[in-house]
Amino acid sequence: xxxxxxxxxxxxxxCFRCAATxxxxxxxxxxxxxxxxxxxxxxxxxxxxxxxxxxxxxxQHPGWIKVIALNKNQGAAGARNAGxxxxxxxxIAFLDADDTWHREKLxxxxxxxxxxxxxxxxxxxxxxxxxGKLQPDLPPNRGATKxxxxxxxxxxxxxxxTAMLRRNIPFRFSAGKRYAEDLYLWQQIAFxxxxxMCIESPLAYIHKAPYGEGGLSAQLWEMEKGELGNxxxxxxxxxxxxxxxxxxxxxxxxxxxxxxxxxxxxxxRP
Length: 270
Description:
The chain is of the alpha/beta class. Helices cover 38% and strands 22% of the residues. The chain is globular and about 55 Å long.
């Protein structure tokens, strides 16, 4: 890789029983117009052959892919933290093993972060890309929106596979937390006073339904408990008051029931 095509970014990919999809995720990293300096694949004690796939990918890209094997399953939060600690670059970008990126993602987001040194973490839009559809053209004008701390109480404004952050910020994913752990990290960062931004361009793609399909998203009640737990932790930390805690909890429960109805309707369709 030519040096002017490489950006000082470590890409961290948590991997758990993802042998069928991780090569596609890594290919989307390798196809970036400006490639990251390194890729860190973290096997979260899969025990199903995933580690062997990751090691094979590392052999295909010697010196570029680093594989970490955890002895005990820690969930996505623990796997991401392990990759974060092993990263050598000043910027960290996250990708899930069943998702992919637009080929211009790192170029666009890295340039934005460099041009805005006061931004601690940025995300961007993410859309579904199913049934072999091609990546859409990007909009010619790409703005960025500031994400206020209170708005993150009511909505997760971007998903983890869209996030790029500065490696040295004094926060990490909450160890042992397995649901809504990404949102809790964005909330902590925002309520600390650091700047969180969202780039208005679809630079990442998910390849399954956001709710009701396999993986963590299928466990709606566990996800809901994770989000409610975020509010309680923020309240106990003094980041939000009692009124905001109850308001956010009621609003979140409303969203939960809508998701349940959505999944049940789609489950009965032929």
